[in-house]
Amino acid sequence: MVFGGALQPHRGDVLTSPVSLAEDSARYIARLTGGEPVRTELWHDALTHGSMGEARDYQRLEFLGDRVLGLAIAEWLHEKSAAAEGKLSQRLNALVSRETCAEVARAIDLPAHIRLGKQARDDGGAQSDNILGDVMESVIGALFIERGFEAARAFVRQAWAQPMAGGTGHAKHPKAALQEWAAGNRRKPPVYSLVARDGPDHAALFTVSVSVPGVGEAQASGSSKQEAETAAARAFMKSFG
């Protein structure tokens, strides 16, 4: 997938680096962002998982990209919608969620370019929502550092066009829906419990139960505790709501 025309490099210090970015990944970044990667160490780090055992990986860029993504999406929602703050927050949380970031990463063929250690790749790390979501944000962080916010915003608006147009976040979050259902039916609040955590850190699987006293219980699994809780709330509402 190619996003738009060439984006102008951010005016600032341009560093040349001895870090080698794989040729296919360099071509991919150029197609993806509309400009050749200049600071190759940024893009190398952005695509590198900790399982590679290298001195630097994507974590710092992911920290930055998470904030850039949040600002870009918040600005876009404010521009597009006259909804109240609560509805805007609901959509924002869904659009920047780990699950949506992972969906976007798959749509732009990012998994093929993530640098994973052998064990992490064998364990399915290239399809882990946690890893894909993190790397998606780290790519945004690298783009922000190299070319500035306008370039990062343009990328986000094109990469997130489908989730935005498709209404991601319009429906109430399953945990909020369950909370309201319990209150509306004069029940005690739902209680979430971690049942199990399996697998290595980079491909963990969490199983969570949610119960409403006097009503019932449901279980579900996910690649993060939050994802498992959301799935459990959805399963509970399907069974008892």
Summary, kept brief:
The chain has 241 residues and is mainly alpha-helical. Helix content is 53%, strand content 10%. Strand 2 and strand 3 (216-222) form a beta hairpin.
Description:
With 241 residues, this protein is mainly α. The protein has two domains: 23-165, Ribonuclease iii, N-terminal Endonuclease Domain, Chain A, CATH 1.10.1520.10; 174-240, Double Stranded RNA Binding Domain (2-Layer Sandwich). 53% of the residues lie in helices and 10% in strands. The protein has eleven helices and three strands; from the N terminus they run ααααααααααβββα. It has helices at residues 23-33, 40-46, 59-80, 85-95, 98-107, 118-122, 129-147, 149-159, 161-165, 174-184, 225-240, and strands at residues 191-198, 205-212, 216-222. It has a three-stranded antiparallel beta sheet with strand order 1-2-3, covered by helices on one side. The chain is flat. 38% of the residues are buried. Mean pLDDT is 88; it is low at 4-17.
